[in-house]
Structure to design on (385 residues):
Protein backbone atom coordinates (compact mmCIF):
# COMPACT_ATOMS: atom_id res chain seq x y z
CA UNK A 1 0.00 0.00 0.00
CA UNK A 2 1.17 3.54 -0.53
CA UNK A 3 3.51 4.64 2.21
CA UNK A 4 1.55 7.83 2.94
CA UNK A 5 -1.33 7.78 5.36
CA UNK A 6 -3.71 9.88 3.30
CA UNK A 7 -7.32 8.75 2.95
CA UNK A 8 -7.97 6.15 0.26
CA UNK A 9 -11.23 4.80 -1.15
CA UNK A 10 -12.43 1.37 -0.02
CA UNK A 11 -15.36 -0.92 -0.57
CA UNK A 12 -16.36 -3.56 1.97
CA UNK A 13 -18.80 -6.20 0.68
CA UNK A 14 -21.06 -7.97 3.19
CA UNK A 15 -24.10 -10.27 3.23
CA UNK A 16 -27.06 -8.37 1.77
CA UNK A 17 -29.28 -6.97 4.49
CA UNK A 18 -26.41 -6.19 6.87
CA UNK A 19 -25.12 -3.06 5.09
CA UNK A 20 -26.43 -0.59 7.71
CA UNK A 21 -24.81 -2.56 10.54
CA UNK A 22 -21.55 -2.65 8.59
CA UNK A 23 -21.64 1.14 8.01
CA UNK A 24 -22.07 1.61 11.77
CA UNK A 25 -19.13 -0.71 12.47
CA UNK A 26 -16.93 1.02 9.88
CA UNK A 27 -17.65 4.45 11.39
CA UNK A 28 -16.37 3.15 14.72
CA UNK A 29 -13.06 2.19 13.00
CA UNK A 30 -12.64 5.74 11.69
CA UNK A 31 -14.25 5.35 8.25
CA UNK A 32 -15.37 8.62 6.67
CA UNK A 33 -18.47 9.16 4.54
CA UNK A 34 -19.70 5.55 4.43
CA UNK A 35 -22.05 5.00 1.50
CA UNK A 36 -24.40 2.03 1.72
CA UNK A 37 -25.11 0.13 -1.51
CA UNK A 38 -26.74 -3.28 -1.99
CA UNK A 39 -24.18 -5.80 -0.81
CA UNK A 40 -21.61 -3.51 0.75
CA UNK A 41 -20.39 -0.15 1.98
CA UNK A 42 -18.01 2.27 0.25
CA UNK A 43 -15.95 4.51 2.50
CA UNK A 44 -12.88 6.61 2.72
CA UNK A 45 -10.23 5.99 5.33
CA UNK A 46 -6.54 5.96 6.11
CA UNK A 47 -4.40 2.89 6.52
CA UNK A 48 -5.22 2.52 10.20
CA UNK A 49 -8.94 2.40 9.38
CA UNK A 50 -8.24 -0.30 6.80
CA UNK A 51 -6.23 -2.41 9.28
CA UNK A 52 -8.81 -1.89 12.03
CA UNK A 53 -11.68 -2.85 9.72
CA UNK A 54 -9.91 -6.09 8.79
CA UNK A 55 -9.07 -6.93 12.39
CA UNK A 56 -12.37 -5.93 13.99
CA UNK A 57 -15.23 -6.11 11.50
CA UNK A 58 -17.65 -8.90 12.32
CA UNK A 59 -19.85 -8.09 9.31
CA UNK A 60 -17.59 -7.32 6.31
CA UNK A 61 -16.68 -10.14 3.93
CA UNK A 62 -13.60 -8.26 2.68
CA UNK A 63 -12.06 -4.80 2.61
CA UNK A 64 -11.16 -3.83 -0.96
CA UNK A 65 -8.86 -0.89 -1.68
CA UNK A 66 -9.78 0.99 -4.87
CA UNK A 67 -6.64 1.53 -6.94
CA UNK A 68 -8.22 2.50 -10.27
CA UNK A 69 -11.44 3.60 -11.94
CA UNK A 70 -12.23 3.70 -15.64
CA UNK A 71 -14.86 4.02 -18.31
CA UNK A 72 -15.04 1.28 -20.90
CA UNK A 73 -16.88 -0.18 -23.85
CA UNK A 74 -14.75 -3.16 -24.79
CA UNK A 75 -12.42 -5.68 -23.17
CA UNK A 76 -9.51 -3.76 -24.72
CA UNK A 77 -10.51 -0.66 -22.75
CA UNK A 78 -10.41 -2.73 -19.55
CA UNK A 79 -6.98 -4.09 -20.50
CA UNK A 80 -5.69 -0.55 -21.12
CA UNK A 81 -7.05 0.71 -17.79
CA UNK A 82 -5.42 -2.17 -15.91
CA UNK A 83 -2.13 -1.73 -17.75
CA UNK A 84 -2.07 2.00 -16.90
CA UNK A 85 -1.57 1.33 -13.18
CA UNK A 86 1.88 1.32 -11.54
CA UNK A 87 1.46 -2.21 -10.21
CA UNK A 88 5.14 -2.50 -9.29
CA UNK A 89 4.58 0.23 -6.70
CA UNK A 90 1.73 -1.74 -5.17
CA UNK A 91 3.27 -5.20 -4.72
CA UNK A 92 6.49 -7.09 -5.38
CA UNK A 93 6.91 -9.08 -8.60
CA UNK A 94 7.74 -12.19 -6.50
CA UNK A 95 4.22 -12.21 -5.06
CA UNK A 96 1.72 -14.59 -6.64
CA UNK A 97 -1.42 -13.15 -8.16
CA UNK A 98 -5.03 -13.94 -8.89
CA UNK A 99 -7.64 -11.79 -10.62
CA UNK A 100 -11.38 -11.93 -9.79
CA UNK A 101 -14.06 -10.25 -11.87
CA UNK A 102 -17.64 -9.46 -10.91
CA UNK A 103 -20.12 -7.57 -13.03
CA UNK A 104 -23.55 -5.94 -12.91
CA UNK A 105 -25.26 -5.08 -16.19
CA UNK A 106 -21.92 -5.21 -17.99
CA UNK A 107 -22.03 -5.70 -21.77
CA UNK A 108 -18.91 -7.91 -21.77
CA UNK A 109 -19.56 -11.42 -23.06
CA UNK A 110 -17.21 -13.46 -20.93
CA UNK A 111 -16.01 -12.68 -17.43
CA UNK A 112 -13.34 -15.39 -17.83
CA UNK A 113 -11.95 -13.50 -20.82
CA UNK A 114 -11.87 -10.22 -18.83
CA UNK A 115 -10.09 -12.09 -16.01
CA UNK A 116 -7.42 -13.23 -18.47
CA UNK A 117 -7.04 -9.78 -20.03
CA UNK A 118 -6.60 -8.07 -16.66
CA UNK A 119 -4.10 -10.71 -15.56
CA UNK A 120 -2.19 -10.09 -18.84
CA UNK A 121 -2.34 -6.33 -18.31
CA UNK A 122 -0.85 -6.60 -14.81
CA UNK A 123 1.85 -9.02 -16.00
CA UNK A 124 2.66 -6.98 -19.14
CA UNK A 125 3.02 -3.85 -17.06
CA UNK A 126 5.35 -5.61 -14.62
CA UNK A 127 7.44 -6.88 -17.54
CA UNK A 128 7.72 -3.31 -18.89
CA UNK A 129 8.75 -1.90 -15.54
CA UNK A 130 10.89 -4.58 -13.87
CA UNK A 131 11.59 -7.09 -16.68
CA UNK A 132 9.72 -9.95 -15.00
CA UNK A 133 6.09 -10.89 -14.31
CA UNK A 134 4.38 -12.31 -11.22
CA UNK A 135 3.16 -15.92 -11.25
CA UNK A 136 -0.51 -16.76 -11.12
CA UNK A 137 -1.72 -18.86 -8.18
CA UNK A 138 -5.33 -19.99 -8.01
CA UNK A 139 -5.61 -21.66 -4.61
CA UNK A 140 -3.74 -19.36 -2.25
CA UNK A 141 -2.55 -16.20 -4.02
CA UNK A 142 -0.49 -13.58 -2.17
CA UNK A 143 -2.27 -10.74 -3.96
CA UNK A 144 -5.88 -10.63 -5.14
CA UNK A 145 -6.95 -8.09 -7.72
CA UNK A 146 -10.72 -7.56 -7.98
CA UNK A 147 -12.34 -5.98 -11.00
CA UNK A 148 -15.88 -4.68 -10.66
CA UNK A 149 -17.74 -3.84 -13.86
CA UNK A 150 -20.92 -1.82 -14.19
CA UNK A 151 -22.61 -0.96 -17.48
CA UNK A 152 -20.07 1.66 -18.58
CA UNK A 153 -17.72 2.06 -15.65
CA UNK A 154 -15.35 -0.22 -13.86
CA UNK A 155 -13.04 -0.21 -10.86
CA UNK A 156 -9.89 -2.08 -9.90
CA UNK A 157 -9.33 -3.09 -6.31
CA UNK A 158 -6.59 -4.71 -4.29
CA UNK A 159 -7.95 -7.04 -1.64
CA UNK A 160 -6.56 -5.97 1.74
CA UNK A 161 -8.18 -8.98 3.45
CA UNK A 162 -6.85 -11.93 1.45
CA UNK A 163 -9.00 -14.83 2.56
CA UNK A 164 -12.59 -13.73 3.19
CA UNK A 165 -13.06 -12.14 6.62
CA UNK A 166 -15.73 -14.62 7.68
CA UNK A 167 -12.90 -17.13 7.90
CA UNK A 168 -11.94 -16.31 11.47
CA UNK A 169 -9.47 -19.14 11.84
CA UNK A 170 -11.39 -21.19 14.42
CA UNK A 171 -13.64 -23.45 12.34
CA UNK A 172 -12.48 -27.04 12.80
CA UNK A 173 -15.30 -28.84 11.06
CA UNK A 174 -18.47 -27.94 9.27
CA UNK A 175 -21.92 -29.42 9.73
CA UNK A 176 -24.32 -29.46 6.82
CA UNK A 177 -25.22 -25.87 5.82
CA UNK A 178 -23.24 -23.92 8.41
CA UNK A 179 -23.87 -20.19 8.52
CA UNK A 180 -21.07 -17.90 7.47
CA UNK A 181 -19.57 -16.26 10.51
CA UNK A 182 -20.34 -12.69 9.42
CA UNK A 183 -23.97 -13.56 8.73
CA UNK A 184 -24.24 -15.25 12.14
CA UNK A 185 -22.69 -12.19 13.82
CA UNK A 186 -25.15 -9.92 11.99
CA UNK A 187 -28.11 -12.05 13.10
CA UNK A 188 -26.95 -11.83 16.73
CA UNK A 189 -26.63 -8.04 16.40
CA UNK A 190 -30.08 -7.73 14.80
CA UNK A 191 -31.62 -9.73 17.65
CA UNK A 192 -30.48 -7.03 20.08
CA UNK A 193 -29.15 -9.69 22.47
CA UNK A 194 -27.21 -8.22 25.40
CA UNK A 195 -24.40 -10.24 27.00
CA UNK A 196 -26.23 -10.06 30.35
CA UNK A 197 -29.11 -12.08 28.89
CA UNK A 198 -29.22 -15.87 28.49
CA UNK A 199 -28.81 -16.88 24.83
CA UNK A 200 -29.92 -20.24 23.42
CA UNK A 201 -29.42 -21.76 19.97
CA UNK A 202 -31.57 -24.91 20.14
CA UNK A 203 -30.59 -26.03 16.58
CA UNK A 204 -26.95 -25.07 16.96
CA UNK A 205 -25.29 -27.29 14.34
CA UNK A 206 -21.60 -26.29 14.35
CA UNK A 207 -22.32 -23.49 16.86
CA UNK A 208 -21.48 -20.58 14.56
CA UNK A 209 -24.05 -18.31 16.25
CA UNK A 210 -22.77 -19.17 19.74
CA UNK A 211 -19.09 -18.70 18.76
CA UNK A 212 -19.85 -15.29 17.27
CA UNK A 213 -22.02 -14.20 20.21
CA UNK A 214 -19.36 -15.24 22.74
CA UNK A 215 -16.56 -13.51 20.81
CA UNK A 216 -18.67 -10.37 20.55
CA UNK A 217 -19.59 -10.34 24.23
CA UNK A 218 -15.97 -10.87 25.27
CA UNK A 219 -14.80 -8.07 22.95
CA UNK A 220 -12.55 -10.46 21.01
CA UNK A 221 -11.21 -9.17 17.70
CA UNK A 222 -12.45 -11.65 15.06
CA UNK A 223 -9.24 -11.32 13.02
CA UNK A 224 -6.69 -11.91 15.75
CA UNK A 225 -5.96 -15.51 14.68
CA UNK A 226 -5.41 -14.96 10.98
CA UNK A 227 -3.27 -13.28 8.32
CA UNK A 228 -4.36 -10.53 5.91
CA UNK A 229 -3.73 -9.51 2.32
CA UNK A 230 -2.39 -6.06 3.29
CA UNK A 231 0.61 -7.74 4.95
CA UNK A 232 1.76 -8.75 1.45
CA UNK A 233 1.32 -5.37 -0.22
CA UNK A 234 4.08 -2.76 -0.56
CA UNK A 235 4.08 -0.09 2.10
CA UNK A 236 2.79 -2.49 4.77
CA UNK A 237 3.22 -0.68 8.08
CA UNK A 238 4.38 -3.48 10.36
CA UNK A 239 4.77 -1.15 13.38
CA UNK A 240 1.21 0.14 13.18
CA UNK A 241 -0.12 -3.39 12.66
CA UNK A 242 1.79 -4.71 15.70
CA UNK A 243 0.38 -1.88 17.80
CA UNK A 244 -3.21 -2.60 16.68
CA UNK A 245 -2.82 -6.32 17.36
CA UNK A 246 -1.35 -5.67 20.81
CA UNK A 247 -4.22 -3.35 21.61
CA UNK A 248 -6.69 -6.07 20.50
CA UNK A 249 -4.90 -8.77 22.54
CA UNK A 250 -5.18 -6.94 25.86
CA UNK A 251 -7.54 -8.83 28.15
CA UNK A 252 -10.85 -7.04 28.47
CA UNK A 253 -11.62 -5.35 31.77
CA UNK A 254 -14.78 -6.31 33.62
CA UNK A 255 -16.98 -8.66 31.63
CA UNK A 256 -20.46 -9.89 32.36
CA UNK A 257 -20.72 -13.59 33.14
CA UNK A 258 -22.07 -15.22 30.00
CA UNK A 259 -24.92 -17.71 29.95
CA UNK A 260 -24.91 -19.30 26.50
CA UNK A 261 -26.68 -22.55 25.67
CA UNK A 262 -26.63 -24.76 22.60
CA UNK A 263 -28.49 -27.92 21.71
CA UNK A 264 -29.14 -30.03 18.65
CA UNK A 265 -30.96 -33.29 18.03
CA UNK A 266 -27.98 -34.63 16.10
CA UNK A 267 -25.08 -36.01 18.18
CA UNK A 268 -22.59 -35.56 15.30
CA UNK A 269 -23.47 -31.87 15.01
CA UNK A 270 -22.93 -31.47 18.77
CA UNK A 271 -19.43 -32.96 18.47
CA UNK A 272 -18.63 -30.44 15.75
CA UNK A 273 -20.09 -27.66 17.93
CA UNK A 274 -17.87 -28.76 20.82
CA UNK A 275 -14.74 -28.74 18.66
CA UNK A 276 -15.53 -25.34 17.13
CA UNK A 277 -16.29 -23.74 20.50
CA UNK A 278 -13.02 -25.17 21.85
CA UNK A 279 -11.00 -23.86 18.89
CA UNK A 280 -12.63 -20.45 19.26
CA UNK A 281 -11.65 -20.52 22.96
CA UNK A 282 -15.17 -19.83 24.21
CA UNK A 283 -16.32 -23.31 25.34
CA UNK A 284 -16.30 -22.39 29.04
CA UNK A 285 -19.26 -20.03 28.56
CA UNK A 286 -21.43 -22.43 26.60
CA UNK A 287 -23.52 -25.33 27.93
CA UNK A 288 -24.24 -27.92 25.25
CA UNK A 289 -26.79 -30.71 25.34
CA UNK A 290 -28.34 -33.19 22.95
CA UNK A 291 -32.04 -32.47 22.69
CA UNK A 292 -34.90 -31.88 20.34
CA UNK A 293 -36.17 -28.31 20.24
CA UNK A 294 -39.70 -29.66 20.55
CA UNK A 295 -39.03 -31.16 23.98
CA UNK A 296 -36.21 -29.12 25.51
CA UNK A 297 -36.94 -26.83 28.42
CA UNK A 298 -35.86 -23.21 28.70
CA UNK A 299 -32.56 -22.81 30.59
CA UNK A 300 -33.81 -19.57 32.25
CA UNK A 301 -37.05 -17.69 32.85
CA UNK A 302 -36.39 -15.31 29.96
CA UNK A 303 -33.76 -14.78 27.31
CA UNK A 304 -33.03 -14.71 23.61
CA UNK A 305 -33.33 -17.73 21.32
CA UNK A 306 -31.68 -17.66 17.90
CA UNK A 307 -31.96 -20.62 15.56
CA UNK A 308 -31.32 -21.48 11.94
CA UNK A 309 -33.53 -24.46 11.09
CA UNK A 310 -32.94 -26.53 7.95
CA UNK A 311 -34.51 -24.91 4.84
CA UNK A 312 -35.99 -28.00 3.33
CA UNK A 313 -33.57 -28.54 0.46
CA UNK A 314 -33.30 -32.29 0.99
CA UNK A 315 -35.89 -34.63 -0.49
CA UNK A 316 -38.88 -35.02 1.81
CA UNK A 317 -37.61 -32.29 4.14
CA UNK A 318 -40.09 -29.72 2.87
CA UNK A 319 -43.15 -31.75 3.94
CA UNK A 320 -41.43 -32.65 7.18
CA UNK A 321 -40.85 -28.95 7.92
CA UNK A 322 -44.47 -28.06 7.16
CA UNK A 323 -45.48 -30.55 9.86
CA UNK A 324 -42.73 -29.32 12.19
CA UNK A 325 -43.62 -25.58 12.33
CA UNK A 326 -46.99 -25.88 14.14
CA UNK A 327 -45.37 -28.25 16.66
CA UNK A 328 -42.55 -25.72 17.11
CA UNK A 329 -45.09 -22.96 17.77
CA UNK A 330 -46.76 -25.13 20.41
CA UNK A 331 -43.40 -26.02 22.03
CA UNK A 332 -42.32 -22.37 22.20
CA UNK A 333 -45.63 -21.40 23.72
CA UNK A 334 -45.38 -24.19 26.29
CA UNK A 335 -41.68 -23.95 27.24
CA UNK A 336 -40.42 -20.51 26.24
CA UNK A 337 -42.89 -18.00 27.49
CA UNK A 338 -40.85 -14.85 28.30
CA UNK A 339 -38.31 -15.47 25.52
CA UNK A 340 -37.63 -13.46 22.38
CA UNK A 341 -37.19 -16.05 19.64
CA UNK A 342 -35.47 -15.41 16.30
CA UNK A 343 -35.53 -17.84 13.41
CA UNK A 344 -33.38 -17.38 10.33
CA UNK A 345 -34.74 -19.29 7.36
CA UNK A 346 -35.32 -19.23 3.61
CA UNK A 347 -38.61 -21.05 4.13
CA UNK A 348 -41.29 -18.34 4.00
CA UNK A 349 -44.01 -20.80 5.00
CA UNK A 350 -42.67 -20.76 8.54
CA UNK A 351 -44.23 -17.43 9.48
CA UNK A 352 -47.74 -18.69 8.81
CA UNK A 353 -47.36 -22.31 9.86
CA UNK A 354 -45.79 -21.63 13.27
CA UNK A 355 -49.06 -19.93 14.34
CA UNK A 356 -47.37 -17.28 16.51
CA UNK A 357 -47.60 -13.53 16.14
CA UNK A 358 -44.55 -12.29 14.16
CA UNK A 359 -43.30 -9.08 15.76
CA UNK A 360 -40.59 -8.37 13.15
CA UNK A 361 -39.33 -9.81 9.90
CA UNK A 362 -35.99 -8.71 8.48
CA UNK A 363 -34.99 -9.65 4.92
CA UNK A 364 -31.44 -11.00 4.78
CA UNK A 365 -29.51 -12.95 2.17
CA UNK A 366 -27.53 -16.10 2.70
CA UNK A 367 -25.33 -15.76 -0.40
CA UNK A 368 -27.87 -15.58 -3.24
CA UNK A 369 -30.71 -17.09 -1.17
CA UNK A 370 -33.33 -14.64 0.08
CA UNK A 371 -34.09 -15.36 3.73
CA UNK A 372 -35.95 -13.81 6.63
CA UNK A 373 -35.07 -13.32 10.26
CA UNK A 374 -38.39 -13.74 12.07
CA UNK A 375 -38.92 -12.43 15.57
CA UNK A 376 -41.52 -14.02 17.83
CA UNK A 377 -41.95 -12.58 21.30
CA UNK A 378 -43.39 -15.48 23.17
CA UNK A 379 -45.75 -14.43 25.92
CA UNK A 380 -48.67 -16.29 27.39
CA UNK A 381 -51.46 -15.80 24.88
CA UNK A 382 -49.22 -15.12 21.86
CA UNK A 383 -50.58 -18.19 20.16
CA UNK A 384 -52.70 -17.38 17.11
CA UNK A 385 -54.62 -20.63 17.50
C1 LIG B 1 -29.00 -25.42 9.14
S1 LIG B 1 -28.38 -26.38 10.45
C2 LIG B 1 -27.77 -25.18 11.59
C3 LIG B 1 -26.40 -24.72 11.22
C4 LIG B 1 -25.78 -23.83 12.26
N1 LIG B 1 -26.48 -22.54 12.35
C5 LIG B 1 -24.31 -23.61 11.95
O1 LIG B 1 -23.93 -22.51 11.58
O2 LIG B 1 -23.55 -24.57 12.02
C6 LIG B 1 -29.83 -26.95 11.24
C7 LIG B 1 -29.57 -27.80 12.47
O3 LIG B 1 -30.84 -28.08 13.08
C8 LIG B 1 -30.75 -29.37 13.67
N2 LIG B 1 -32.12 -29.85 13.89
C9 LIG B 1 -33.03 -30.23 12.96
N3 LIG B 1 -34.20 -30.57 13.56
C10 LIG B 1 -34.01 -30.38 14.89
C11 LIG B 1 -34.85 -30.53 16.04
N4 LIG B 1 -36.11 -30.96 15.92
N5 LIG B 1 -34.33 -30.23 17.25
C12 LIG B 1 -33.06 -29.80 17.38
N6 LIG B 1 -32.21 -29.64 16.33
C13 LIG B 1 -32.69 -29.93 15.11
C14 LIG B 1 -29.95 -30.16 12.65
O4 LIG B 1 -29.37 -31.30 13.28
C15 LIG B 1 -28.91 -29.13 12.19
O5 LIG B 1 -27.72 -29.24 12.93
Amino acid sequence: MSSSNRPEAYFAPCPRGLEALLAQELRSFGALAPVVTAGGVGFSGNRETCYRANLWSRIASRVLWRVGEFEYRTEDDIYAAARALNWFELFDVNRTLRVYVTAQKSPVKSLEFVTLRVKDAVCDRFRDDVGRRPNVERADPDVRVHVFLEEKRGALYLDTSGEALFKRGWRMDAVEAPLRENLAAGIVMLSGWKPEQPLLDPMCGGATILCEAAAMARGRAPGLKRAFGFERLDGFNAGLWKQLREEASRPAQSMPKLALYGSDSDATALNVARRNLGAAGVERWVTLEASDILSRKAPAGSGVMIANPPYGERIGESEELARFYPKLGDALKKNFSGWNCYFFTADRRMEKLIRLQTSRRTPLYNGPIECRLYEFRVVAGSHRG
User: Anything to note?
Assistant: The chain has two domains: 8-159, 181-218+255-377. Residues 175, 177-179, 202-203, 205-206, 208-209, 264-266, 269, 292-294, 308-310 surround S-adenosylmethionine (CB under 6 Å). The chain is about 30% helix and 25% strand.
